[in-house]
Amino acid sequence: MIKHAEWLVVGNSKDFPFRIGRTIRLNDNEIAVFRTSENKLYAVENSSPHPKGGPLTEAMVSGHHIYDPLCDWKIDLETGIVQEPDHGQIKTYTVREDGEKVKISL
Amino acid sequence: MINSKKKLVVIGNGMAGINTVEQILKLTDKYEITVLGSEPHPNYNRIMLSYVLEGSKTIEDIILNDLQWYKDQGITLYTGKMVQSIDGERKRIHTEDGLEIDYDLALIATGSQSFILPIPGKELPGVIGFRDIADCTAMLEAAKTYKKAAVIGGGLLGLEAAKGLVNLGMDVTVVHLMEDLMERQLDREASAMLKAELERQGIKFAMQMQTAEVYGQDRVQGLRFSDGSELEADLLVMAVGIKPNIQVAVQSGIETKRGIVVDDLMKTSMPDVYAVGECAEHRGICYGLVAPLFEQGSVIAKHLAGADTEGYAGSVVSTKLKISGVDVFSAGEFITAPEHTVIVAKDEWKRTYKKVLLRENRIVGTVLFGDVSESASLQKYVRQQTLMTDEIYGQLMGTGCSKDGAKTLSAETMADDEIVCGCNGVTKKAIVDAIHENGLTTVDEIKACTGATRSCGGCKPVVEQILQYVLGDSFKTAAKQGICGCTTLSRDEIVAAIKTKGLTTTREVMNVLGWQNDEGCSKCRPALNYYLGMINPDTHENEEDSRFVNERLHANIQKDGTFTVVPRMYGGVTTPEDLKKIADVSLKYNVKVVKVTGGQRLDLIGVRKEDLPKVWEELDMPSGYAYAKSLRTVKTCVGSQFCRFGTQDSMGMGEVLERKFERLDFPAKFKLAVNGCPRNCAESCTKDIGIVGNDGGWEIFIGGNGGIKARLADSLCKVKTDDELIEIVGSVMQLYRETGQYLERTSEWVERTGLEEIRKAVVHDVDQRKALIERIEFALQQVEDPWKKIINDADSRKNLFEVVTPSLV
Ligand SMILES: Cc1cc2nc3c(=O)[nH]c(=O)nc-3n(C[C@H](O)[C@H](O)[C@H](O)COP(=O)(O)OP(=O)(O)OC[C@H]3O[C@@H](n4cnc5c(N)ncnc54)[C@H](O)[C@@H]3O)c2cc1C
Ligand code: SF4
Predict the structure, then answer these.
(1) Is-above-0.90 flag for pTM?
(2) Can you give the residue ranges of the Nitrite/Sulfite reductase ferredoxin-like domain (chain B) (predicted)?
(3) Under CATH, which architecture does the B6-111+245-305 domain have?
């Protein structure tokens, strides 16, 4: 059986500035959405894979990588993979712009 | 919610167990971890007990992970809990006091205990082993009341105990069964040299003596040997070996020999039960040193995280005697046998000895005495059984000339397993290996590869030394280091290029100067943003996205993702009205803690990001910049307004200075103190600029730091008037702003620039001082309070602080 993706509207395009993360809160979970300089949107779970955790929205964005604001881990937004020398991976979500709306599929 | 995590229960809270846990945590969060340990302490560095005994470290110093760490990692810890057995059928662990804990996977890491000779009198008070904190405190206590100590066992541990006791002022005799000391690690030559050296240090020896009995009434009074002779002693330390703690395994029906038998994946004979450390026996060997057990832990961690591992294949062990001040080192095979080719160099005058053993021309073992500078490379050769070449021979044995003048680096003599970077638990060996294996040439590369220097940076000098020591001469010619991995350009080159080429944004800088990483990294972006603003205070547009989160959101981020708000309190002075407002806002926004800071202000800790603008609005106070690389506080004493000693109005001057220079960006945080008199109650000596009032004026100190690398401030000059004071302070600040490297505190800047240079610029050269003042005044005209600004800027409020709660389509 094919299950159709559910799309959540998380805001208007203009609410997502370049290289500044936004936090989306869903019940107890948080998602961080970033717009890169290449005008691509990425959505990832808002929680660092570092053992001490912490939010990622406040990360510094460089290309399609972010630098964890608390412990400076470098994470690839495309794959969610933490770059060497650290290890780990975060969940990524599909995000798209539909007209003026930004939508995420969980 | 159903918990999908597997339950991992670790029995033993020692070095092997916790190291394994740390390695697991680095790889995966699949496990819910419980640790049970029989000692009442959190995990500590057992190796360092020798330093505690010797007096150079305290017990607090050697704690590896404090209780908070366990909490932070979500680990349930039971201290003072002795595990009795494992029920493999029901998958449940039983403790002696009746607790039952279910597991999916269990890890036995119970270590070992001192072997106590089974001789009459061994139970007498005053007879102890050397194993844990309790033994160590018992020795420290005994040394206060008693004079004579005996140590049975002339191995590594016994000698370290003996040296410690000598340092504590005791008369110590080491009793050893064998002809040679440390016979398991040293050959006869080295052993004899060691004995001579230790005798010089005050340790006595009774060699080839077998203890038959311990005598005494209420407490040990002495030893009787098998030949009938006696030795008086009111403290007896047995350091004759260790006995793996295998009771838990035995009780549970797990296969044991000397230790708990494990395979290459460190699995025991019971399904889902692993063992690691001194309690484990792998291919017939129980290891008694930490390096092998860290390797074992890494195999378990990889295996449990589902990563590839070839399994554990055993370790080549090497030994170093830590505290006697004599360097000895051995690795691999070191007792000469007929099949060995032997290279020896013995120097009785310099008291050094070096032996390298070859089998079929491959390096298989070594002993070093007195000079262990080659230990790191020899260890590698032994581990890899490297083929001997002329080159290696030359390196190891020298060319015959003396190495006079060559500075011995302390990194050389450091034990391999010594932790260099305390924050990230990186050992010297890990660094040395990383350098060798990946051909690293800079501290930054080491940081990227091992994590050392990454947190507080306090260990950077040591890491540099290790690098220098491993690379030798090639260190000087190693690749040029830029401000970060994205460029090879230095700070000065970048600043010059911004000025001459008229660059205006970080992007432009990176494009024009050929950055390797298009958009830079978390190191260079904030730095470039700072340099641009410093050079063009009026035209530079601050780049929010190149700011560290604290400066982007104008509050301190805390580890749980909440923020700390710190209102300004000029000169550390506030009013009852303000306090009331602070209290009201704190209550309204559920602030977790209100804390008085070291800089005389109030921290409102635990504010949610989305509440920040409202908190600022309702406080209606200026931002305290506790988050910024900027003027933080001006700490003041009571001064002439109230103090009976004060000769100058320190509170007044503090407020003036803070109001004048707040909000300006600096290369790093910046702190001031103003004191009313030389009693110095506001502690000027650890501030970037410290001011001390005296009868006729003020004295100015610069470059103090109470942080990572403590430094006392240097006296810059004395001034007579308040105006002069403000001028000099301003010009020092601007000079630092213009010439400091991003993140470089004034303590480092003063040392790099030289006090005399700074004095020349701001005290002697009046023209230069005036020019600096002009530039800082110009920059000061551009600043504005970020809190006010955000309150009035709906867009930033929304984009930076608001959290979106979405709706379904
Ligand atoms: C003074 C001293 C100096 C040393 N110096 C060096 C050195 O320079 N270099 C080096 O490589 N090594 C050195 N060692 C050895 C090193 O400390 C050990 O190899 C290492 O600590 C072993 O780790 P482990 O986890 O296997 O055992 P441990 O660190 O001993 O940990 C085992 C833990 O398990 C607990 N435990 C035992 N049984 C139970 C039970 N049934 N239930 C619950 N908990 C239990 C114990 O209380 C203990 O805390 C030194 C050791 C000592 C004592
Ligand atoms: S430094 Fe001097 S003036 Fe200031 S409080 Fe101390 S004693 Fe009083």
Answers:
(1) no
(2) 557-620
(3) 3-Layer(bba) Sandwich (3.50)
ipTM: 0.91
The CATH superfamily holding the domain B325-397 is FAD/NAD-linked reductase, C-terminal dimerisation domain (3.30.390.30)
| Span from the CA of B694 to the centroid of ligand 2 (angstroms) | 10
Instruction: Reduce the DSSP state of residue B714 to 3 states and report it.
Output: strand
pLDDT per residue as tens digits for the range B438-448: 888 888 888 87
Q: Which CATH architecture has domain B114-243?
A: 3-Layer(bba) Sandwich (3.50)
Range in A48-52, B332-336, B787-791 with the lowest mean pLDDT: B332-336
What secondary structure letter does DSSP report for B567? B
Q: What is the interface size between A and B, counted as CB pairs within 8 Å?
A: 103
What token pair was written down for B456?
A: 């507080």
Q: What is the mean pLDDT of residues B384-400?
A: 78
B10: exposed, middle or buried (Cβ count in 10 Å: 0-12, 13-18, 19+): buried
Total length of chain B: 809
All residues at 6 or more sequence positions from B194 whose CB lies less than 8 Å from its CB, including other chains: B181, B182, B186, B321, B326, B328, B369
Number of residues assigned to chain A: 106
Compare CB distances from B521 to A30, A67, A85 and report the shortest one's residue. A67
Q: Which residue in B519, B800, B807 is closest to A63 by CB distance?
A: B519
Cβ-defined contact of A67 to B546 (cutoff 8 Å): no
Establish whether the linkage from the previous residue to B537 is cis, with ω within 30° of 0: no
